[in-house]
Structure formats: C-alpha cells, structure tokens
Design goal:
This protein has about 525 residues and is of the alpha/beta class. The chain has three domains: about 180 residues, 3-Layer(aba) Sandwich (Aminopeptidase); about 110 residues, Aspartate Aminotransferase, domain 1 (Alpha-Beta Complex); about 230 residues, Aspartate Aminotransferase, domain 2 (3-Layer(aba) Sandwich), CATH 3.40.640.10. The protein contains 16 helices and 22 strands. It holds the Pfam family Aminotran_5.
Length: about 525
C-alpha cells in the first residue's frame, strides 16, 4: 500500500457519496451479511441524511469510511434498553457506524487516522463520547484505539457485535501508545525532508527529470510546455500561465514590472518576512504605494483592508502574499477578492507557498506568482506567473521579465529546461492539496509535545513555525536533528534571528512520520536542556 497519497477528509462531493454507498454494499451486504442484495449494488444508510462521513481517498478512490451522527435515537437505542445507564455520568454521546476499509488498506494506519479525524470532529461539536457496535472479529483493533466494551454481544444475522464507547481520555491514552509504536516503525537511516524547498518528490517525477534533455525549440518540448501551462491553468482556475526558468523572487520581479504599467497607487500588505520582501520589490521598481503593516504573525483582517480602501480611494491595486511562509499565516483570499471587486482594485498575489498546498482559485486575481519546487512537488528552478488578462510585450521593460513577451511567444521566448518542465508536468499528475482542517491536526501533534507553534486551523497546513524558548538554540537543535536525518528549516537569517524552526509539508511526505517528527523535536530539545543543566 502506498500511503503517501492518502487524503483524509469529510465527504462533501457527490461522487464521494456514491462511492460510500457502493462501499456500504460491499461491506454490509457482501462481506458482512446484514442487508439483502439488490441489483444496484449500492446501500444507502437509513440515517444517510444525518450522517457525517469521514473518508480516506487514494487519488479519487474512496478506500475507507466511517460515519458519525448525534441525533437520538441511536441504532443502539433500538438494541439496548436504557442505553444511557451504561454510559458514564455527564456523557454527551454521538454514534459511530458504518466502518469500512478496503481490504488492501486494512493492515495499515488508515483506521487509526480516520478515528483521529473523527475525534477532532466530535470535539469541535462538544461531544465527549462516541459509541459503536464493533464487529466481533475486530474487537482487538477497537480496543487498541481505546474503545471500551459495555453490555452484551448483539447478534444481527450471521454477525455479532459488541457495544463499545470511546472517550477523549481513552483515545489520548491510546494515542501515546500508538505513537510509540509508530516511532519504532520509522527507519533510523531514512532521510526525512521537512524543508519548504527543495521538497521530497514522487519517484515518477525523479524519472521524468532524469530523461535526456531536448531542445527548447523542438516540437516535442513545445508540446510538453503547452501541456504544462494547460494543467497549471486548470489547477488554479487561471486564464493564462507562463513558466520561466527562475525562482519565486524572479516571479515577483515580473509582478513588480507589470505594476509599473498600472495607473494609480497601490497597497502592499505585510506581517512577516515575505510581505516585507514585496515592499522591497516595490521600492526597487519605484512603485507608488502605501503599506498596511503589522508585527510578524499579527493577523491583517479583511475588515482592516476594506477600511483602508474605503478611506483611500486612490488605491488601484493590492499586492500581498497568500501564505506568509515565515509564520504560516494564511490570508483569507476569497474575502480579499470580494473587497477588491467592491472597490475595483486589482489584486496581485505571491502564492509561492500556497499553490499546491491549499486550494487556490485565481479566477479574479490580476497577477499571481508560484514556483515549481514547493507545493507543486517538483524540483526548484521554475518560476510560474498566472495572469487574468492578455498582456502585450512592453519594450520599456527588461526583456527577461517582460511577461507579454512570454505570452506572445507561446511561453518559450528564451532557452528553457526540458528536464524541469518534464518533472513539473509529471508532478502535476500526482499533486493534491491539503484540506484546511488538516492544519489543526498537524499542529496538534506538536502542541501535544508542549512545543509552541504559531496559529490554528486557519493557518496553512504546509508550514509549521515553532518558537523555541530563549535557553534553546534553534541552530543547535536544527543541527542535532540534521545529524539524525531529519531536515527542518532553521538556517535562514530571519529564522535564526528569532530562534524559530520550521517543519514544512509541501512535498511528497508520509503522514505516518508526523508523530515521529514531533516526538524527535521534543526529545532533542529536552536533551539540549539536560546538557545545558549538566554543564552548569
């Protein structure tokens, strides 16, 4: 089983529900004979309109599911008289039902991770307990997760079920044991890359990059570049996409150059390293602009942007990062787009750390910058420019950063890298974003280790910034983890100055390594403290 591309989420799409009904049939008709066969090979649960389905997907295929509902009566109310008498005092229960995992994914962590998301969902809705009818043959698995049996076995057709309940405390206790087990399963010699770039890439991307280079003037290359640009446009719902040999810094130079062509004053938002870099870009191009600045990691609210535009009617464009990589702060892009529409202001975006990490819709964005070597999970070296409108060449701009020249030359006015283009083309076949609820779950791993991390589930799941106490050196901690084959971001000047380290989840990573990573950071930090105390 390839666990690198499994997505855990709450079902929301029509196709996902249709696959749920078919999986229901396979499990509860064909495998566990609880219901009668039908010609449609689908089984819709009687509580379907009330159920929330936690699912796991491999690409577009639903490979596991579990449902939860809180409305009484539960199905167990029909089978156990006075059900509440069996539950602890103060219980606010929900019922878990319809557990199904396709056979090839059963001997894995899939069930545990679905329950992990399920517990988060329940706690958000103030349920403090979950009850379940556990099929008899899986009792050991349920107990390992933390479920506790109550009442007697229930017979249903040819199957027998054990009523069980799970509390937050039971799950947390089992979580610690699970993580200890998981830590042992991570090979000590395996390199774990949690850098924001270069990121781990898929094996097929490696193969594509290793192909012999071809001429950027060959029809074969031009066809591939056309395909890459088409995939990029679809990926973010943009009208046009250009791919340039270069970095994210170069992509933002392109945007600054185009802003020299727009009339009127601009507004640049900044609350971290990369917002302030945009200000530097603008100064170097001598743009006319104001700034809306906050301290690092202090949110800039949409209401503040709207107020500024209302009181400064001369603002004609806004330039901001989407994800502030230094802290993980994620701007509310749809809300900012709405404000820009209302005030007829063009929006420009540095989306280098968000495209490929979280869903991004650039339909109404004037210009946006991205890169190949972060969330798009390919090699660094390609700058990507998205633009809404047709752009004509402008001879007042330097040739290399004249976006119109790329647009009028089918994207290839100068020498290009076929290796980088092929790798990006392949990466776009495998790429998926992280759903935002995952941000809270990822951060929780670190908070449970008593590490101070920025943000909540509104922050990007692609970058976790950890603020170390003053008596610990971020450089020393990063060096110690590097010796153990764990690569974190800590060597940039702005991180060293603030004693921060970062774990990024932008590339192809195994989610099973997350608890191990959090535990290892805590372990090495504790060892550093002990070494420091022993030296006194």
């Amino acid at each position: 089983m390839d666990s690198l591309h499994l997505i855990y989420k709450i079902a929301s799409e029509r196709d996902e529900f249709e696959q749920i009904y078919k999986l229901n049939y396979q499990t509860f008709v064909e495998e566990i004979p609880q219901h009668s066969r039908n010609e449609h090979l689908r089984l819709v649960d009687r509580f379907d309109h009330e159920n929330t389905y936690i699912i796991v997907k491999k690409k577009e295929e639903v490979v596991g599911m579990i449902s939860v509902r809180a409305n009484r009566p539960f199905s167990l109310d029909d089978k156990i008289a006075n059900l509440d008498d069996y539950l602890p005092e103060g219980a606010c229960p929900c019922e878990i039902r319809l557990l199904s995992v396709k056979e090839e994914f059963r001997k894995s962590y899939v069930f545990y991770k679905m329950v992990d998301l399920l517990v988060s969902h329940c706690l958000e809705r103030k349920y403090n307990m979950a009850i379940i009818s556990g099929v008899e043959r899986q009792l050991r698995l349920y107990k390992r997760i933390g479920f506790q049996p109550f009442a007697s076995l229930i017979e249903n057709g040819d199957a027998r079920f054990q009523p069980m309940f799970l509390t937050k405390e039971q799950f947390e206790s089992s979580t610690k044991a699970f993580r200890r087990m998981m830590n042992r399963k991570v090979p000590s010699g395996k390199l774990l890359n949690f850098l924001p770039g270069p990121v781990p890439v898929h094996k097929e991307v490696e193969k594509a990059f290793a192909m012999p280079p071809i001429s950027h003037r060959s029809q074969l290359f031009l066809n591939e570049m056309k395909e890459v640009r088409y995939k990029l446009r679809l990926y973010v719902n943009a009208n046009f996409a250009q791919v340039v040999v270069g970095t994210g810094t170069l992509a933002n130079e392109f945007i600054a150059a185009q802003l020299t062509r727009l009339p009127g004053k601009g507004l640049i938002l900044a609350n971290g390293e990369f917002g302030y870099r945009l200000i530097n870009h603008a100064r170097r191009f001598k743009l006319d602009f104001d700034t809306l600045e906050k301290a690092w990691n202090e949110p800039i609210q949409v209401e503040e942007i709207e107020s500024y535009l209302r009181n400064h009617r001369d603002i004609r464009w806004i330039w901001t990062v989407h994800c502030e990589t230094s802290t993980g702060f994620l701007y509310d892009l749809p809300a900012i787009q709405d404000v820009c529409k209302e005030y007829r202001v063009e929006l420009c975006l540095d989306a280098c750390s968000s495209v490929g990490v979280v869903p991004v819709d650039l339909q109404d964005v004037y210009l946006a910058a991205a890169v190949s070597g972060k969330g798009l999970k390919s090699y660094p070296g390609l700058a990507i420019l998205f633009h809404r409108d047709t752009i004509e060449p402008d001879e007042t701009l330097p040739r290399y950063i004249d976006l119109g020249l790329y647009h009028s030359s089918d994207g290839v006015p100068f020498t290009h890298s076929s290796n980088l283009a092929s790798a990006l083309n392949e990466a776009l076949n495998w790429n998926h974003t992280i759903d935002l609820p995952s941000a809270g779950r990822i951060r929780r791993y670190f908070k449970e280790q008593e590490l101070e991390v920025f943000g909540d589930d509104t922050y990007s799941p692609g970058v976790i910034t950890i603020c170390l106490p003053s008596d610990l050196s971020s450089r020393e901690l990063g060096d110690r983890l590097k010796e153990k084959n764990i690569l974190l971001s800590y060597e940039s000047d702005y991180l060293l100055q603030r004693n921060w380290i970062q774990a990024a989840f932008m590339g192809v990573q195994d989610p099973e390594s997350l608890p191990y990573l959090a535990a290892m950071i805590k372990q090495e930090a504790d060892l550093m403290i002990k070494d420091w105390q022993a030296a006194l």
